[in-house]
């Protein structure tokens, strides 16, 4: 089963890149300042790097909140992630001018349609447990742009964000001028952010970077880096207007991250996607291992707070590992991550240290994916934004929770398969509260409700997300065996997180 982590649709508005991030990679509608907050999130004592005392850090970092906010404003002024430029030359020129920072550390590169973000987080957590200083770039962000650039497991500080931007900004403007002189668009939001991430990682410095593509792979900005290991989560139809109309076309685009003599590990794929990856591996003389053949998830059992998994890796079998994430698809993501780390640390022939692996898995988190954000009544958010992700969510709710009744608060973006999403959720739904996020691309509630009512009678639409949540929570509070699940787009999940924080819901 695959996750749904991504939505690469970043624009100057809250986004949607969740499995995952948009998640194909969808990364982003979370691009704009959060609709329920202004730039104040930068002053919330956000975690950063290089400071041992958190209280001292929070005090110091809050002084740079305004500077970080200005960086974000400059990024938002650029072409958003909903309109990526199919090119690498612009990013390549920018990193060349600042000394190719992406060549100063090894890279593990991840792509796919569903599961990328969670797999990236698991890979990073295992590497960090090994004592390596890690850099992690994922998309989109839920609350703060800082979340996209993680160093040693913590979002980049406001200070580092602002100072690294100040260092690279003159060179970005030089490239902008060169592009405009040739009649091309200046660097986009994602291109500039990628350069910022590479520079920040080099400045930290880090031992290894884990990079999640923004969209596709071949012409994605992150592909100016050479991945020692290429990782493929399940590939499905998404972003067809930019990546291709068939799985084979999309897989060929994603296979562009494979570099000569790289190690490749892949989740189970359709035959068309598998053929595309095998051809790319042959052309680059790379070693390719598929889930089910080279490695596999042997078992997954429900446990308090997550699941116990056993994995046959490339080099050894690892039994009874605790993974604090819900859903069998997360077990498959963990198996893929383990194979990726084995490929990186021991070329796939050296077993991981069991205690270290157990620590890495036990400390992983995946915000916005089957995340419980409220109790009494239970409120869960999940970034499912395509039918595959919605099906994974529905299955996980049945397997990992014991609710008698579930209400879904849903909102979908206009480029998503709304009928497919609702169709996957309907079998486990008792009612739907149809609404929308504040994204400019959100389907209007009065339009979405017509789609939902064709599949489920207990459906009501609301112009206000807050009102939909109030009534859904009121319904769920009548019976402790009821729950509310917010899903359909990453931007809606982001608004739910902000609302939960503002109203003080306690998980």
Structure explained in plain terms:
The chain has 507 residues and is an alpha/beta fold. The protein folds into two domains: 40-292, Mur-like, catalytic domain (UDP-N-acetylmuramoyl-L-alanine:D-glutamate ligase, 3-Layer(aba) Sandwich), CATH 3.40.1190; 371-503, Protein-Tyrosine Phosphatase, Chain A (Alpha-Beta Complex), CATH 3.90.190. The protein is 38% helix and 16% strand. The protein has 16 helices and 17 strands. The strands form three sheets. An eight-stranded mixed sheet has the order 4-3-2-5-1-6-7-8, with helices on both faces. A six-stranded mixed sheet has the order 12-13-17-14-15-16. The longest helix is centred in the middle third of the chain and has 24 residues, at 158-181. The chain starts with 53 loop residues before the first helix and ends with a helix. Residues 1-53 have low confidence and may be disordered.
């Amino acid at each position: 089963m695959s996750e749904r982590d991504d939505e690469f649709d970043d624009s100057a508005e809250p986004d949607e890149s969740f499995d995952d991030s948009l998640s194909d990679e969808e990364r982003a509608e979370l691009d704009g300042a959060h609709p329920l907050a202004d730039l104040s999130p930068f002053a919330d004592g956000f975690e950063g790097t290089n400071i041992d005392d958190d209280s001292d850090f929070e005090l110091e970092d809050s002084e740079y909140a305004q500077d970080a906010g200005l960086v974000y404003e400059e990024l938002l002024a650029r072409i958003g992630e909903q309109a990526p430029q199919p090119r690498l030359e612009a990013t390549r020129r920018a990193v060349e001018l600042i000394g190719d920072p992406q060549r100063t550390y090894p890279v593990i590169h991840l792509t796919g349609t569903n599961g990328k973000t969670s797999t990236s987080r698991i890979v990073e957590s295992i590497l960090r447990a090994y004592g390596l200083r890690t850099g992690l770039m994922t998309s989109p962000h839920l609350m703060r742009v800082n979340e996209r650039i993680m160093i040693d497991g913590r979002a980049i500080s406001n200070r580092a964000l602002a100072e690294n931007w100040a260092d690279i900004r003159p060179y970005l403007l030089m490239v902008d001028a060169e592009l405009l002189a040739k009649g091309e668009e200046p660097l986009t939001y994602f291109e500039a952010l990628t350069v910022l991430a590479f520079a920040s990682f080099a400045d930290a410095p880090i031992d290894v970077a884990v990079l999640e593509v923004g969209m596709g792979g071949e012409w994605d900005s992150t592909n100016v880096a050479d991945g020692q290991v290429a990782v493929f989560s399940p590939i499905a139809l998404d972003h067809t207007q930019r990546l291709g109309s068939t799985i084979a076309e999309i897989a060929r685009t994603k296979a562009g991250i494979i570099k000569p003599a790289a190690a490749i590990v892949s989740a189970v794929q359709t035959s068309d996607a598998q053929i595309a990856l095998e051809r790319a591996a042959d052309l680059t003389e790379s070693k390719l291992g598929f889930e089910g053949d080279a490695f596999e998830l042997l078992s997954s059992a429900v446990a308090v707070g997550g699941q116990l998994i056993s994995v046959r890796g490339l080099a050894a079998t690892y039994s009874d590992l605790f993974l604090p994430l819900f859903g069998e698809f997360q077990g498959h993501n963990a198996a893929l991550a383990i194979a990726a780390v084995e490929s990186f640390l021991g070329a796939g022939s050296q077993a991981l240290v069991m205690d270290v692996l157990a620590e890495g898995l036990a400390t992983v988190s995946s915000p916005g994916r089957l995340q419980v954000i409220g109790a009494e009544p239970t409120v869960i958010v999940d970034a499912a934004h395509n039918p595959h992700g919605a099906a994974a969510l529905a299955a996980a709710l049945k397997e990992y929770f014991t609710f008698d009744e579930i209400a879904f608060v849903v909102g979908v973006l206009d480029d998503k398969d709304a009928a497919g999403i609702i169709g996957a959720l309907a079998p486990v739904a008792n009612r739907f509260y149809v609404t929308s996020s504040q994204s400019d691309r959100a389907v209007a509630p009065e339009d979405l409700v017509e789609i939902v009512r064709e599949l489920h009678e207990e459906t009501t639409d609301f112009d206000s997300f807050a009102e939909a949540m109030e009534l859904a929570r009121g319904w769920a509070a009548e019976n402790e065996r009821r729950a509310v699940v917010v899903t359909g787009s990453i931007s809606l999940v982001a608004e739910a997180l902000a609302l939960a924080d503002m109203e003080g819901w306690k998980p």
